Amino acid sequence: MYRVETQKSITEICFECGFHNISNFNRIFKKSQGCTPSEFTESYYGRKKLI
Fold this sequence. Notes:
59% helix, mainly alpha, single chain
């Protein structure tokens, strides 16, 4: 689940996914998605039109 679908913080999601280290989570997320979790969230909301 990505942060854009919840009000949870990136840290909460990190630990819920089984990571014990936010840096490791960020590194793996960036390798997978091409950006950090924060950048992913910002780009999502930058493109999403709110009605």
